[in-house]
Write a structure and sequence with these properties.
Helix content is 0%, strand content 60%. By secondary structure, it is mainly β. The mean pLDDT is 97.
């Protein structure tokens, strides 16, 4: 009912920047909080950043001061600006959102398929 498509991943050199996008589509009535997670090989998925429907943000300790999450509700898109990247940021980045759809009476959680970010040293 809701599709989340991430884009913007790829190979970047250490110290560089990258912006990820996550666009939502489907029978969306309302969008709640959205978030970015990441999972490196052999590691658990970890929270990168969250943003509420009113724009309040929260960040994981490892990305504070380097990453910025933002959203454009009109475009149904959430962004992750990543600066000062290090090889430790290499991971698959996943978008998650909470949506109310035309076919549900309550908000439900949806995940994107992920986009690979590789930071070379």
């Amino acid at each position: 009912q809701v599709q989340l498509v991430e884009s913007g991943g790829g190979l970047v050199q250490a110290g560089g920047s990258r912006r990820l996008s996550c666009a939502a589509s489907g029978s969306i009535v309302s969008i709640g909080a959205m978030a970015w997670y990441r999972q490196a090989p052999g590691k658990q998925r970890e929270l990168v950043a969250t943003i509420t429907s009113t724009g309040s943000t929260n960040y994981g300790d490892s990305v504070k001061g380097r990453f910025t999450i933002s959203r454009d509700n009109a475009k149904k898109t959430v962004y992750l600006q990543m600066n000062s990247l290090t090889p430790e940021d290499t991971a698959v980045y996943y978008c998650k959102g909470v949506f109310l759809t035309a076919f549900s009476s309550s908000y439900r959680e949806y995940w994107g398929q992920g986009t690979q970010v590789t930071v070379s040293s």
